[in-house]
Structure formats: C-alpha cells, structure tokens
C-alpha cells in the first residue's frame, strides 16, 4: 500500500476537501459564546448525537487495538461493544434526564452542584490526564503504527501528520464542527470497515463466496487444521493454565486475562458508567442535544450501531487468525488490520480505506480536543483562575488550550511503544484505574441524598489508591492473576462501601446539594415521559429493538452454537 493509484489519491483528497470544508462551514459562527463553542448552542439533532457519540468512541484503538485483541483472544473482546447494553440503558433512562435538567456544561460542574468545588476540580484534573494519556496519545500512536505498516512512515512522522490534520478544524469550530463532521466520518468508517471484512471473507472463501468464507473462518477459529489447533492450544496454556480455549465464545472462565464471564454482569458499573455516562469526552454531545428526546434517541441510535460494530472491528481479527495463526509479537499483532488492507485491497479502494482510517483517527482526536479544552476552560480556568472572563475570552482560551493539549499528546504518543503491551490493553487498563471511584460517587450521589461532599473527595483518593495497590502489590504478592476489568469492578464495590461509611460519619449535605435535579426521587421523577409520538418515534420501542439485538448477539456467541 506504499503506492496509491491516481484514483486512490482522488478519493482520499476528496474526503479531506469535504471534511475540512464541512468543518469550517458549520463552525464559522461557533466562537461567539462559550455555549456555541463548547456545546454547539445545544442544537444537535438525534442522528448527529448518535453518530457523533459512536465516532468519538471508535478510533484506531478499535481498528488497530481491538482487531489485534480479537486476533489474540477471539470473539470475547466484542463484550466491549455488546456489553454497553447496561451502561447505555442507564444513560438513556437515568443519567440524561438529570444531566439535562441541571443545564450544566460539563460533568465536573455537575459534581460541584451535587457535592462541592473540590470534587469538581479533582474530576476535571483526572479527566484531563485521562484524555491526554488514555485517549489522545494512544490514538495518535496506534494510528501511526497502522500508517507505518501501510506506508513505511516513521512513528514520529505519522503522529505529527495525524495530529495536524485531525486537529485543525476542531480547534477552529468547536463542538459544532466536531459533531457534524463526525456524521460524515461515521458513514465513511462504516463503508470502509465493512469492506475489509467482506473482502476478508471472500478471500477465505477461495472463490466460493461469503458463506464459504464465513464457514472457513469459523472452522479455523474452532481449531480445524493443525496450525490453528496448535495456536489455540498455546492460547489455552498461556491464558487459562492449560484449559481448553474457546475463541468463539464471549463466556470465558474466571481466570481469563481480560474478560472473565463475571465482568459481563459487573463491569458496566465501573468502566462503562464512567466512559459512557459521565466522561466529558462522550457525554458532551448529549449535553448539546436539542432536548431530552433527541439526546436519548441519539443514544438509542448508538446502541444499534454497537450491535453492528464487531463486524468491522472484531471479525477482521478472526479473519486474519484464519489466514495466519502464527503471530506472537505484539507489535506485529497490532498491525493486523493494516496487513489485511495491504493483502486484500486493490488499487482504487485503498483511498477509501485510508479515508476510513483517518476518519476513525480524526473523529476521536477532535472530540477529545474539544472536550478536554472544555473541561480546562470552564472547570479550571473560569472557576479557579479567571472568574470574570468574558464569553469571547472563554472561547479564545479554548482554542489556545486545544493547541497546547494536542502538542503534549504528540510528545507522549511515541513513548507508548516502550510499555511492551498492546494498544488495546494499555488503554483499557488505564480506564480501569480512573473509572471506579468516579462511577461510584456519581451513582451513589444520584441515588442517595445522604452522600456527602467529604465522602466523595475521600472516595476519589481511596479508589485510585486501592486500584494501584491491588494491581501492583496485592495481586502480585499472592500471585493471583486478576483481569483489569474484574479489578475495576472490585474497586468500584469497595468505593461504594467506603463512601457510604464516610457519609454516615460526616455532616449531611446542604439542601441545595440534594435538589430533585441532582438526586433521584420517585415522587418527582419524569424519567419515562416525553417518549415521542407517533408510535414510530417512540423511544421505548426503538430502545427495546436495540436491546434485543445486543442480547441476541450474546446468545449467539455464548458457546451454544460454535463449539
């Protein structure tokens, strides 16, 4: 793929022209006020909310990291998509009504209203650290790895080119540019991602079509053939202490290194709640929706897309395993998606695939830039440094802060290679450290009026310390291999217990911290109103269909049908 045809260059160039023109056009008036720049004037319709939510989530972490993880572990990594049924349900039916009723700009601002300014500052700082290290730097690095495999570029060259092209219009136009361009990027990502999977299955079909390719992929991932059986046996020794390894099942034993079966039931309480429901990077487009119906229906659309996404970001890993089961070096496994592209895609289509990859990169970069600058500007700069800043000054500060954030991420990105772990593992393990205490204090604070600000601050420090202590001291001393996803759930449970105890030992919160728009009350709740009319716009109807799709995927790959 080091040489692109004229058609490839036209397709790729056309993608950039449309993307940048769209971003500059829709964002041309976005810098007048902070609400315009950071929340698009709260005018986003449901289809933009949903596609932007997914585009912000899907990046090279998935096209590079998750495809590589699927090559290594099998279909079980699809849990990061289908397992969102719980967190998305909580977001639709529980979190969105509170977040919109409070009229906040950021999740840290909500924490201040419910608890105190210290909580806001701590969450803002940790959000910025997480965004730069677990999102921006990781995305830039994994994207550069893919481009290195396809074009032979150095990591530094790839990081710099991606940062410049991905950040320009996001810095200029704020969330309005980000959200509307992500609608276009999602379309390109889906087309490109599905195309790679289809071409891979056709290749495995040996001229007999998609169905034959699917059958071959399934058979080889079940161990049919000596090299595939040997690779699966090796995985059983490495991951499960010699037990049989089932690549086509989402139900894995408790000693599985990343997704033991119990995490299906409990992981959503920690990482998924934090990532989908209170993480500014994701929730910002919900806060920018026209109204509650558009916000909730946007997440329903995202649920439907989550049902479908493993076709693009998990099946390619299974396909490449069926082509070459012998990869053992992590740096080579992270290049699995790029290898599929170089082997299967002919001239004329490479430009579209490159556009899809850049779309995945840019959609995450521009979202993280905008959300991080929002948090720094509104939760730190305006709150603690310059309270009297004008609306125009706040928007200007957001632009300069976005530029500085991108530069820091560029400097950090190449260092990820020194960690010796896959991109997917690196990102998810960081999430598992940040998420539990914040997910705990949000859930406890929304459900229990007695939860206090002092208990929330103490729980933040307790949760992060407990997570680090468990991973680097306790589990190593007792030589107990515990998946980071299970560790996050354990820490979340400890945080809930800790906060309840500290709350009972401290003075009850002030009345203004437990108003109906901050704490759940069955007597005043309106969670199930404004569902939409006529029937084909009914939120509950479409939510039920999306939830059924996710449950159906779990049943299909539960081990009952592929053995």
The gist of it:
The chain is mainly α and 563 residues long. It is built from 25 helices and no strands. It has one domain: Sodium/glucose cotransporter (Up-down Bundle), CATH 1.20.1730.10.
Segments where pLDDT lies below 50 for 5+ residues?
none
- CATH domain class: Mainly Alpha
> Which architecture would the CATH scheme give at its second level?
Up-down Bundle
Q: In one word, what is the shape?
A: globular
Keywords:
25 helices, Sodium/glucose cotransporter, mainly alpha, single chain, globular, 563 residues, 72% helix
How does this model look, in words?
The chain is mainly α and 563 residues long. The protein has one domain (6-420, 536-556): Up-down Bundle (Sodium/glucose cotransporter). It has helices at residues 6-26, 34-39, 46-57, 60-73, 79-82, 84-102, 107-114, 117-151, 155-204, 210-221, 226-240, 263-266, 271-278, 280-287, 292-308, 310-313, 315-323, 330-333, 336-344, 350-385, 391-412, 423-447, 453-477, 484-505, 539-556. Helix 3 crosses helix 15, helix 13 (271-278) packs across helix 22 (423-447) and helix 23 runs antiparallel to helix 24 (484-505). The chain is globular and about 70 Å long.
Write the layout of secondary structure elements.
Blueprint: H1 6-26, H2 34-39, H3 46-57, H4 60-73, H5 79-82, H6 84-102, H7 107-114, H8 117-151, H9 155-204, H10 210-221, H11 226-240, H12 263-266, H13 271-278, H14 280-287, H15 292-308, H16 310-313, H17 315-323, H18 330-333, H19 336-344, H20 350-385, H21 391-412, H22 423-447, H23 453-477, H24 484-505, H25 539-556
Helix pairs in contact: 1-9, 1-20, 3-9, 3-14, 3-15, 3-20, 4-8, 4-17, 4-22, 6-13, 6-15, 7-8, 8-9, 8-19, 8-20, 8-21, 8-22, 9-10, 9-17, 9-20, 9-21, 10-17, 13-14, 13-22, 14-20, 15-25, 20-21, 22-23, 22-24, 23-24
